[in-house]
Specification:
With 460 residues, this protein is mainly alpha-helical. The chain has one domain. The strands form two sheets. It has a two-stranded antiparallel ribbon. It is globular, with a radius of gyration of 22 Å.
C-alpha cells in the first residue's frame, strides 16, 4: 500500500500538469485546492512517505510528499508569468540553509534532514501562491478554498463536540494546531472582504473560524485571533473608510459580539478543568528551562527535530524537572523561538526571526504605501495574521508542523505576490509616463487590482 500511495502522489504531478495546460477552466480549481488541501491532506491520506519514521518523536517524520506539493509545483510550471524568484523567498532559503547546517552536528542527522525536505515543500507552496497572487480571480479562488476548508473544519468540530469531545481538533491532530491555522484563514479572508470581494462563502469561512476557536477552547487562540480581527478592521478603516467597508466591519464586529459569550464559556470550562487538576508543577516553565539549558550548551543547536531525543538522552528534561511520563517527555518546548534556538542555535533563530520580520515589514509597507489601493487590505489581513502568529508562538510550538507552515506560506506568498505585482505596475507606469500618457490614463494602470476601478468582485 505504501508504494501505491507513493506512485499515486508522484503520478498526480504529470496529471495535474496536463489538466492545467489542456483546459484553462481547471485553473480555478487548482487555486481552490491550494487553499483547501493544507487542511485535508493528512485526514484524507493524500500524502506518501518516501521515507517514513512514523514513531519518531520529532515533528518532521520523514521525506513526505503530499498532493499540495505536486499541485503547487504544477501551478508553478504551468503559470508562465511573472518570471523570476518572488520577493521574500530568499529569507525562507536562508532559514533552510541554517537548518541544513544543523544536520552534521545532530544526534540523528537523517531526522534533521527531514525538516529541510519539509521546508522545501513549504517553499513550493509559497512560490505557487506568489505566482498567482497578482491575478485577482486566482486570489479569489484561493480564498474560497481557505473558506471552504474552515467551513469543513467547523462541521467536523461540531460533530466532535456533540460526541463528547470538550476540545475539538477537527481534522488536525490537536486543537491548538487547528487554532493556529485559523489565524491564516480568518484574517486574510477578512482582508479580502474589506478590499471589495463580495462573497458569502468567504463570510461563512470567517464565521466558521470563530466556531472552530470556540470549540477548540484554546485561550491563546481566542485572544490573538480576536485581537487580530479588531486590529485588521481598525487599520483598514485607517487606510480609508467607505460605506461598503463600514458595512463589512459592522458585520464582522457583530459576529465577534455574538461569539464572545461562547468564547467566555469555553474559557470558563478550561479554567474549571485546570483547577480540578491544579498542582505546584509548572510544565511549561520546566520545558523552557530544558530548552534554555540546551541552547546555552549547544549554541549551534542540537539538530532539527532532535529536541525530544536530546532532552531525554542528555538529561536536560530531568535537570529541568520535567515529570517522567510519556506525554511530557515526548513533547516539545511550548515556544517556537526556544525550540528553534535549541535545535538550530543562534544561526537558526536569527534567520527565523529575520524571515518573519521582513515579511511583516513588507506587508505593513504595502498596506499603507497606497491607501487608495484596495489590495492593501488583503496584505493587511495577511500581515496581521503573521503578527498574531509571531506573538502566539511564544506559547506554542505547533508552527513547525507542515500543515501550519503551509498556511503561513500562503499568507507570505500573497504578500510576496502582491508586492511583485505592484512593482510591475509601477514599472509599467514609469514606461507609460515616458511615453507621454495623461495622468488619467496613468491612474488606469493597475488592472491586477482585485476590485479594479472600485468595482467589487462578485462571488456567490
Amino acid at each position: 500500500m505504501r508504494f501505491i500511495a507513493i506512485a499515486a502522489v508522484l503520478l498526480s504531478f504529470p496529471l495535474l500538469m496536463q489538466l492545467l495546460r489542456s483546459d484553462p477552466r481547471w485553473r480555478k480549481w487548482a487555486y481552490f485546492g491550494l487553499g483547501l488541501l493544507p487542511f485535508t491532506v493528512a485526514a484524507w491520506n493524500l500524502d506518501a512517505g518516501l521515507v517514513n519514521w512514523a514513531t519518531w518523536a520529532g515533528f518532521a517524520k520523514g521525506y513526505v510528499l503530499t498532493l499540495e506539493d505536486t499541485l503547487a509545483l504544477a501551478i508553478i510550471m504551468t503559470h508562465p508569468r511573472p518570471k523570476g524568484a518572488p520577493p521574500l523567498i530568499g529569507w525562507l532559503y536562508l532559514f533552510m540553509v541554517t537548518v541544513s547546517l544543523s544536520i552534521p552536528g545532530a544526534t540523528m542527522p537523517m531526522a534533521a534532514s527531514f525538516y529541510v525536505f519539509q521546508l522545501a515543500r513549504v517553499a513550493l507552496v509559497f512560490a505557487a501562491v506568489a505566482k498567482i497572487a497578482g491575478d485577482p480571480k486566482a486570489l479569489m479562488w484561493l480564498g474560497l478554498g481557505l473558506a471552504s476548508a474552515m467551513t469543513l473544519e467547523a462541521g467536523v468540530c461540531l460533530y466532535q463536540r456533540f460526541h463528547g469531545a470538550f476540545r475539538a481538533a477537527g481534522t488536525m491532530s490537536h486543537p491548538n494546531q487547528l487554532g493556529m491555522m485559523a489565524h491564516f484563514v480568518v484574517l486574510p479572508l477578512l482582508g479580502m472582504i474589506l478590499s471589495g470581494y463580495r462573497s458569502k462563502i468567504m463570510m461563512l469561512g470567517i464565521a466558521s473560524g470563530l466556531v472552530v476557536i470556540v470549540l477548540g477552547a484554546s485561550r491563546a487562540t481566542m485572544g490573538f485571533l480576536g485581537t487580530g480581527m479588531v486590529l485588521t478592521m481598525l487599520l483598514s478603516l485607517r487606510r480609508g473608510a467607505t460605506p461598503k467597508k463600514m458595512q463589512m466591519v459592522g458585520l464582522a464586529a457583530a459576529a465577534l459580539v455574538v461569539a464572545t459569550p461562547f468564547l467566555l464559556h469555553s474559557v470558563g470550562q478550561r479554567l474549571a478543568q485546570q483547577l480540578e487538576s491544579q498542582s505546584d508543577y509548572d510544565e511549561r516553565a520546566a520545558f523552557e528551562r530544558a530548552a534554555k539549558m540546551m541552547w546555552a550548551e549547544h549554541p549551534l543547536g542540537v539538530g532539527a527535530t532532535n529536541y525530544v531525543l536530546v532532552a531525554n538522552t542528555q538529561g536536560y528534561s530531568a535537570r529541568a524537572g520535567v515529570v517522567w511520563n510519556s506525554g511530557s517527555r515526548a513533547a516539545n518546548v511550548h515556544n517556537t523561538y526556544l525550540l528553534t534556538a535549541a535545535e538550530l542555535g543562534w544561526p537558526g533563530i536569527i534567520a527565523y526571526v529575520l524571515m518573519l520580520a521582513t515579511s511583516i515589514v513588507a506587508g505593513w509597507r504595502w498596506s499603507f504605501a497606497s491607501r487608495r489601493d484596495p489590495r492593501g487590505d488583503i496584505t493587511l489581513g495577511c500581515t496581521v495574521a503573521l503578527m498574531m502568529m509571531a506573538l502566539h508562538s511564544q506559547y506554542e510550538w505547533i508552527t513547525v508542523t507542515y500543515e501550519v507552515q503551509y498556511t503561513i506560506a500562503i499568507a507570505m506568498g500573497i504578500i510576496s505576490g502582491l508586492t511583485r505585482q505592484r512593482k510591475l505596475e509601477q514599472r509599467q507606469a514609469r514606461e507609460l509616463r515616458r511615453a507621454g500618457l495623461s495622468q488619467a490614463e496613468l491612474e488606469s494602470v493597475g488592472s491586477g487590482q482585485p476590485v479594479g476601478a472600485g468595482q467589487p468582485v462578485p462571488v456567490s
